[in-house]
């Protein structure tokens, strides 16, 4: 991720499918960030490879560094890249912890677990919890709440 662009990271997966905010919400958020002149960066694990074609088609401005030819892959690469992100959004997942460990200001999306106990130790972070919107289904989280959290992190 070279100097210049404002990079916004997206980690749409999670080991537990019950903790995944719908992919179409991540895509809509990434499209909105691209419309603001920011560069979406998707972090895709092996379980999410089935989403690559859709992400590439729906968010042509997106970078997917771990899926680029010759790029290293794995947790250490994600941690290293995260220091280049102006902000990131991740489900309650290992990827969220990796992005936080690398220094990305992080919006963490929670649903069934307690963020007080499980939130990543981000240098700067925000929690958006589905329980604030009526239940433990991550789909209850409105995109506007996540977009507002990104903007708040970008303002510092």
Can I get a quick summary?
This protein has 156 residues and is of the alpha/beta class. It contains six helices and five strands; from the N terminus they run E-H-E-H-H-E-H-E-H-E-H. A five-stranded parallel sheet has the order 2-1-3-4-5, with helices on both faces.
Features:
5 strands, globular, five-stranded parallel β-sheet, 156 residues, 6 helices, 17% strand, alpha/beta
Commentary on this structure:
The protein has 156 residues and is of the alpha/beta class. The chain has 6 helices and 5 strands. The chain has a 5-stranded parallel beta sheet with strand order 2-1-3-4-5, with helices on both faces. It is globular. It starts with 6 loop residues before the first strand and ends with a helix. The mean pLDDT is 93.
* Total beta-strand segments: 5
Derived from helix and strand composition plus strand pairing, the structural class reads alpha/beta
Element-by-element helix/strand order: EHEHHEHEHEH
Q: Low-confidence spans: pLDDT under 50, at least 5 residues? A: none
Q: Taking strands numbered 1, 2, ... along the chain, how are they ordered across the largest sheet?
A: 2-1-3-4-5
Number of DSSP helical runs = 6
Topology (elements, then pairings):
Blueprint: E1 7-11, H1 23-35, E2 39-42, H2 52-58, H3 75-82, E3 85-91, H4 94-101, E4 106-110, H5 115-118, E5 125-129, H6 143-155
Parallel strand pairs: 1-2, 1-3, 3-4, 4-5
Helix pairs in contact: 3-4
């Amino acid at each position: 991720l070279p100097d210049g662009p404002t990079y916004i990271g997206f980690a749409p997966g999670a080991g537990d499918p019950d903790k995944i905010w719908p992919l179409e919400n991540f895509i809509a958020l990434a499209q909105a960030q691209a419309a603001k002149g920011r560069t979406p960066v998707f972090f895709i694990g092996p379980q999410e490879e089935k989403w690559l074609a859709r992400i590439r088609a729906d968010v042509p401005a997106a970078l997917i560094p771990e899926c680029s030819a010759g790029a290293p892959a794995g947790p250490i690469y994600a941690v290293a890249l995260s220091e280049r992100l102006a902000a990131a959004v991740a489900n309650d997942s290992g990827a969220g912890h990796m992005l936080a460990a690398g220094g990305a200001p992080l919006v963490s999306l929670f649903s069934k677990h307690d963020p007080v106990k499980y939130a990543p130790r981000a240098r700067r972070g925000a929690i958006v919890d589905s329980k604030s919107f009526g239940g433990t289904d991550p789909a209850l989280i409105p995109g506007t709440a996540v977009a507002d959290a990104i903007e708040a992190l970008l303002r510092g």
